[in-house]
Input
Amino acid sequence: MGVLGQVHTAFSLIGVFAGGVVFLMTKGTRWHRTFGHIYFTAMTGMIVTSFSIYDLTGSFNGLHWAALLSAITLGMAMFHVLTRRPKNNWMVWHSNWMSWSYVGLIAALFAEIVTRIVVPLAAPILDQSQLWSLFWGLVLLMALVVSVAGLYLIKIQLPRTLKRLQTRG
Output
């Protein structure tokens, strides 16, 4: 892995840590905002570096599309918190977009871990095209599994968190 890949990985791991802290802590506090800024900065760095990494296929591929989706979720989350729009429920929109941003990051983490373990183990018994099929199948499977878990957390747990926050404020 080159320097760019190492920087990309560092940004990713900082994002996983900072996002996890934000996810677990009380919302709307100074520490929420501080770790939110760290998460935003790390994600921005990760997204920017991802568009300069072409080692896997030599060209724009599905992982770049995922990075573009990540940029959209992160951008929308920041739009709602910075503009405070829609006026009456910007916090709901911010929370939903930011939650999906983190789900995408965790999906990428799981896909990275699983493919780095399984693909080398399968390499001696599969040909090149089978390895590519295995790789992309694992990436999609991890994205699906993590997204379903994320959907549960966002649709069931997030409203409870927001309700507690509204009754507190």
